[in-house]
Structure formats: structure tokens, C-alpha cells
Write a structure and sequence with these properties.
It is a single chain. The chain is mainly α and 458 residues long. Among the domains are: 135 residues, Orthogonal Bundle (Helicase, Ruva Protein, domain 3); 121 residues, Ypt/Rab-GAP domain of gyp1p, domain 3 (Cyclin A, domain 1). The chain is 74% helix and 0% strand. The protein is built from 22 helices and no strands. Keywords: Coiled coil, Phosphoprotein.
């Protein structure tokens, strides 16, 4: 595959819908890459690979400078000639670096297997810096191996079928990205294709069916790619990224994630953990939506999409990291609030703290201590606890059944004891009479047997 073919493929796979195309600032926040934000894996990169990262970081610096310049010019009535020249120069350099980025990601897509196998560390660093918008559709599909799935051929047939979840899906569609232009209006294209994908999946996986949080994930996919591709990517996410367990009716995986996150909170932020407990502020009250929607209902889309880029490559680990980073950033403020105040803080303050600099959040997330072995041990602990609880529930159910049967027997005995004594006497006399008659019949039968024997002898 050569680059022109790749770019044509990207054109076909990516609809003209972006998470937020309203401003240059939003674009820079999606692709921002500060020079001061290396992650741990960058230390092992080759000089050439570090040079590539340096170019991307320079692009981010210029993006940020250009964004600030635009804001400054818009807010000031004194637009000097020198400032315009400076802005023009920065824009020229930015354009050159954007072209380099386009070529770089085009090469990555062309040589995907090579990058995935032999340049994994550099690929990881680049994804953490942010996938360029026009490459997201194809890169997300490549990351989850959804480019050639047999289920894609079933999609059109699934749409012809009816699903028991249709009414539930219809009810929730309007509440999914209600402010986004693509999904506004009952008859919008966004709502139509979102309904199609959710319905198709509910037919493919009847155990899960439909869960509201999943619609936000599908909605983001539909902002990047056509519905058939979005359906395939969603199927892969459910199968390979633990999302299916999150969205099952029991939501067992969500319980596990909350259990693991609580351990991280207790270990890394013990004072905040004590404060939460003193206020009866449960982890599930603020963190459930983080795991169920992957921060898509927490942050504005440019920031949430950056987190989603990393999730596509590294899985749920980034959700734990970002969640803990948020608590570390806000510990001092949260310690001063009561339960109601913390609820408001999580809803109104935290979501917009990183609108202009998502890289600050990503950098902090990779400073969070995360031990995969410890998380695996916690998973075993949680499973053992749940198994014990299940056994206890079975034992409780058995004891309740036995108790119910004993109560029934006692009630029967009480009824017998409540029968008037004369009726019991009558019953005993009747029983004695039956015994006498039975004895007489037995004697008659014996006599008949003797007589028959004697007659047979003659």
C-alpha cells in the first residue's frame, strides 16, 4: 500500500464530523504535545525516534503559541505590524510541521505491522501525544484489528431485524451528545446511525443487549467513521477490551474496577480516602461513569478523545491512571468540601480543568503508580470475595427454604392440636371400630381358607 492509497482510504473512512471543530484552540488541544511531557517509555527510544517526537513537540509549541496569538489579537485593538509578521512566521512553521505529521502518520498506516511489531515504543509515544483527527478512523480500526471482520457483512441484515431493546435505545438516543451538531434533532443523521449500530449490537450479543453508557462510545466512533466501521470497532471493544463485562446486566466488571480503584486511592491518597469515607462519599458515586463511558461524559470531547486514543492502545489502564491523576490534582480542594460540595465539584469544576492543556493531564496520569501484577492480585481477591458471597447467598437461601418448611410443619401440628377433644375421642373410637372390623374380617378370611383347603382334600 502506498501513501496516496492510504490517504484515499482515510478520506473514505472518515466523515466530516470532528469532536469539536469550533475553534483553533480546540484543534490545538486535541493534538497538543508539550515539550515537557515525556513518558517513561521515551527513555528507550533511538535518536531518530526521539527526533520524530521532538518535531511533534515543536508542532505543539507552535500550535499553542499560534492559539495564544489568535486570542491576543481578538482581544486587543492594537494589532501591530510586528505581531502580524510574528504570527505569519509561526503559522508558516506550523504548516510545515503539520505536513511532517501527516507524512509520519501516513507512513505508520502504510507500514502498520512493522510499527506494531518493531517500533511499538515509538508508536505508543505517538499515540499518547494524540492521533491526528484525520487519521483516527483508520488508526482506531488498526489498533483493535477491526479492518476485516466477518461481522461487517452481517450488518445490513441485522438492520432488517427487530430487537427487543429498540424502545430503550430510542429513549436514550436523544440524551447522547445532545449538544453536538451531528446528533441534534430527532431526525438527524447522527441519531439514525447511532440507533442502527446499537440495535445491531443488541442482536449480535443478546446477553448484553443494550446499556446506556455504551451509546456514548458508539457516538464517538460515529464522529470518526461510517456506521459499518463503527459497528465493527464497537464489537471488538466489547470482545477484547473488557467492555462486555462492564455492560452485562450484573456489571460485575464495574464492581471489580471500583474495588481496584479504591485500593489505589487508599494506597496513594490515604488522607483523601479517609475524608471520602467520613463524608460517606462512595467511589461508585463519582467513578462509575469514568469506567462506563471512558470519560466521554466527563470531559469535553477534545480532551476525552485524547484519553480514548490511549485507551484504544493500552486498554482500561489509562482510565485508572487518569482517574487517580484527577484526584491528585484536586486533593487539597476536595479535602475542604462536604459530600454535596464534592458532588458539585466533580460535576462542574473537574471536567473543564484541562480544556486548554490535555497534555498536562496525560503527563500526570503517567506519573501515577500503576502495578499490573498488583491489579491482577486484586482481581483474584475480588473474585474470591464474590465467590464467598455467592456461596453465602446459596446457604442463606437453603436455610430460608428449610425455615419455611419447618414453619409449615409447625402450623400443621398447631392445627391438629387445636381440634376439639371430643372430635379426637370420636376419631379414636372410629379407629378402634375399624380395627375390630378388620380383625373380624381377618378371622373370616382365615376360616374360608381352612374350609377351601378341606374341600380340596375331599
Amino acid at each position: 500500500m502506498n501513501i496516496p492509497v492510504t490517504l484515499k482510504l482515510l478520506e473514505m473512512a472518515s466523515p466530516a464530523v470532528s469532536p469539536d471543530s469550533s475553534s483553533h484552540e480546540a484543534l490545538s488541544s486535541v493534538n497538543s504535545m508539550p515539550a515537557c511531557s515525556p513518558t517513561s517509555d521515551s527513555e528507550n527510544l533511538s535518536p531518530d525516534e526521539l527526533e520524530l517526537l521532538a518535531k511533534l513537540e515543536e508542532q505543539n509549541r507552535l500550535l499553542e503559541a499560534d492559539s495564544k496569538s489568535l486570542r491576543s489579537m481578538n482581544g486587543s485593538r492594537r494589532n501591530s505590524g510586528s505581531s502580524l509578521v510574528s504570527s505569519s512566521s509561526a503559522s508558516s512553521n506550523l504548516s510545515h510541521l503539520e505536513e511532517d505529521t501527516w507524512i509520519l502518520w501516513g507512513r505508520i498506516v502504510n507500514e502498520w505491522e512493522e510499527w506494531r511489531k518493531r517500533k511499538e515504543k515509538l508508536l505508543k509515544e505517538l499515540i499518547r501525544k494524540g492521533i491526528p483527527h484525520h487519521f483516527r478512523a483508520i488508526v482506531w480500526q488498526l489498533l483493535c484489528s477491526a479492518t476485516d471482520m466477518p461481522v461487517k457483512n452481517q450488518y445490513s441484515e441485522l438492520l432488517k431485524m427487530s430487537s427487543p431493546c429498540e424502545k430503550l435505545i430510542r429513549r436514550d438516543i436523544a440524551r447522547t451528545y445532545p449538544e453536538h451538531e451531528f446528533f441534534k434533532g430527532q431526525d438527524s443523521l447522527g441519531q439514525e446511525v447511532l440507533f442502527n449500530v446499537m440495535k445491531a449490537y443488541s442482536l449480535v450479543d443478546r446477553e448484553v443487549g443494550y446499556c446506556q453508557g455504551s451509546a456514548f462510545i458508539v457516538g464517538l466512533l460515529l464522529m470518526q467513521m461510517p456506521e459499518e466501521e463503527a459497528f465493527c470497532v464497537f464489537v471488538r471493544l466489547m470482545q477484547e477490551y473488557r467492555l462486555r463485562e462492564l455492560f452485562k446486566p450484573t456489571m460485575a466488571e464495574l464492581g471489580l474496577c471500583i474495588y481496584q480503584f479504591e485500593y489505589m486511592l487508599q494506597e496513594q491518597l490515604p488522607e483523601l480516602n479517609i475524608h471520602f469515607r467520613s463524608q460517606s462519599f462512595l467511589t461508585s458515586m463519582y467513578a462509575s461513569s469514568w469506567f462506563l463511558t471512558l470519560f466521554l461524559t466527563t470531559f469535553p470531547l477534545p480532551v476525552a478523545t485524547r484519553v480514548f486514543d490511549i485507551f484504544m492502545y493500552e486498554g482500561l489502564e489509562i482510565i485508572f491512571r487518569v482517574g487517580m491523576a484527577l484526584l491528585q490534582f484536586n486533593q487539597a480542594e476536595l479535602m475542604q468540601l462536604d459530600m454535596e460540595g464534592m458532588s458539585q465539584y466533580f460535576q462542574k469544576v473537574i471536567p473543564h480543568q484541562f480544556d486548554s492543556c490535555p497534555d498536562k493531564l496525560i503527563l500526570k496520569a503517567y506519573q501515577v503508580k500503576y502495578n499490573p501484577k498488583k491489579m491482577k492480585r486484586l482481581e483474584k481477591e475480588y473474585t474470591a470475595i464474590k465467590n464467598r458471597e455467592m456461596e453465602e447467598q446459596i446457604e442463606i437461601k437453603r436455610l430460608r427454604t428449610e425455615n419455611r418448611l419447618l414453619k409449615q410443619r409447625i402450623e400443621t401440628l398447631e392445627k391438629v392440636r387445636s381440634v376439639p377433644s371430643r372430635m379426637r375421642i370420636h376419631f379414636l373410637r372410629f379407629q378402634t371400630s375399624l380395627a375390630t372390623k378388620n380383625e373380624a374380617l381377618h378371622s373370616s378370611l382365615s376360616q374360608l381358607t381352612v374350609d377351601n383347603t378341606q374341600n380340596a382334600g375331599h
